[in-house]
Specification:
The structure is a homodimer of 297-residue chains.
Chain A lengths: L5 E7 L3 E8 L4 E8 L3 H19 L4 E6 L30 H7 L3 E5 H12 L7 E7 L3 E7 L2 E2 L33 H5 L1 H8 L11 H20 L4 E5 L8 H13 L10 H4 E2 L7 H13 L1
Parallel strand pairs in A: 1-4, 4-5, 6-9, 9-10
Antiparallel strand pairs in A: 1-2, 2-3, 6-7, 7-8
Helix pairs in contact in A: 3-9, 6-7
């Protein structure tokens, strides 16, 4: 009997790390969720989980890390695998990939959480067959990654879709936005904390007829239109906690169709098919890490 | 002596077609500029030029057509090589590639003018070595194409960067924009005709201290930031007649750096190196068609 390969998978988020030991066939053998504290606490805790897992399940073929950003994903760079300057306290310039490569003496795949999610959805989820696809998360932060013909894109750094600057909604001109860098970028206007900062509640706790729903949908629809203009994706996937709000995805579709004014693909674009939820659900982050690990082998 | 391959090259614009017979080594053996009239006039005129060229120079190895859009660039589509619905009178649903493939019995490469320009600049110009690069033209219209790892991107259709919707400049709120589809998209606000519509002169004819310069730079800088957020290009090339305005490129750089707020690549991005003029100058359109022809062979 041949033992299947197993992978160490890490979804490294700004509030929590999700760790998983996952097989080639996407079976999760063990998983653990730990809070994101200082790197000196969180990284050793993750190492301990995977060391124990190796005793039980055998050695890892590779690790995959899908991380909050910004990160250095340039393999030729001396700081590959590190976080770059981030507003997340203690985490700027931290080597995230190195400790796992060293401890388990195996290859490490490393990318943004949203590029990982876009990759996983392209392989196994809602973006199968889409030559260009994007994955956007709207939660504690806002981020977006993109796949072009089978590979996540990087370029100068990597997509940072949360820092796209939308035009202001006419009923939302008095709020300055909460992004430490840009104030009123998408993250500063439409993230969970930005919603709470101006309406005192999460979007799902506000009444369905509260104007917040249309305002947030308007900002997200502008990202859709910008993606159509710049990237021409065949599938746009919206995940993250804010997107669990009832009716929000449909509002984004409706407002995107209005903003597009029958232009991008004219009558041929069905916004219900273009803009979708993650098919991998809550597992999309871990499956992103798995896909990165499999590609790093 | 081996005769070099020659290619039929067409830069198909909304106001003029530039035709060229070009060798593998980028030598232009013959060229002709004809106005864009109805397809029943312009296409036969182009065919006649290339028929005469074939008598003098021999058969074409391939044709390359870099066209105004929107166009169908999907090889599997029955309308591949056609214009799609365009505001340009008479040109909607016209087969542009077919007549040349048929008349000269050779492969035809076909893409948007700006994707062709991005490809040519990646091969021979300002984007050599850039894994992700974009080419934007600001002239009679506004368009943008993108290269990702050696290939122009298409996806659902192809990039349509002129229809990106920027936030309005606070001193430019009374002009509705001239885009037939969107009013105040980038093309509706920053194209040559949009500039003339609200200030009665082209940008280069307005005094250097006229606020039009900052307003137009502000809109173009928003496209830069959107590209950084969504595509993360390593090189952004601005061509087209409006960009010949003295000082405009530098204003775009300056305003992009302000909008980015030291974010995308933090201190590592030099906006003078990121945002540049086409290295191929006036030949970028024809060289784009050449590159498309060479790849179609």
């Amino acid at each position: 009997m041949i033992t299947p390969s197993i992978y160490g998978c890490i979804e490294a988020g700004g509030t929590k790390f999700i760790l998983g030991i996952v097989t080639d066939t996407r079976e999760v053998l063990a998983t653990l969720r730990i809070p994101t504290e200082a790197p000196s606490i969180t990284i050793p805790a993750a190492l301990a989980f995977f060391r124990e897992g190796a005793i039980r399940h055998g050695p890892y073929a590779a690790f995959g890390i899908a991380s909050f950003g910004p990160v250095d994903v340039d393999r030729r760079s001396p700081s590959w695998g590190h976080l770059i300057e981030t507003p997340k306290v203690h985490w700027s310039n931290i080597d995230l990939a190195g400790p796992f490569a060293k401890a388990f003496d195996c290859p490490v795949g490393f990318d943004t959480d949203v590029n990982g999610a876009a990759l996983a959805e392209s392989l196994w989820g809602a973006a199968v067959g889409a030559d260009i696809a994007t994955y956007i998360t709207v939660g504690t932060g806002v981020g977006g990654g993109a796949m072009v013909e089978g590979r996540p894109i990087h370029g100068q750094r990597h997509p940072e879709m949360g820092h796209f600057r939308p035009a202001r909604h006419p009923h939302d001109t008095r709020f300055d936005g909460i992004c430490a860098f840009h104030g009123a970028c998408l993250e500063g206007l439409a993230s969970g904390p930005a919603i709470i900062a101006r309406w005192g509640a999460s979007l799902s706790d506000l009444p369905a007829d509260h104007e917040a729903h249309d305002i947030i949908a308007h900002y997200l629809a502008q990202l859709v239109i910008a993606q159509q203009a710049l990237l021409s994706p065949r599938r746009i996937i919206f995940g993250g906690g804010v997107m669990d709000t009832s009716g929000l995805l449909q509002r984004v579709r409706d407002q995107a169709a209005i903003l597009a004014a029958d232009y991008f693909g004219v009558a041929t674009i069905d916004y219900d098919a273009l803009i979708v939820s993650p098919a991998l659900g809550d597992q999309v982050g871990l499956m992103g890490a798995l896909a990165l690990a499999q590609r790093a082998r």
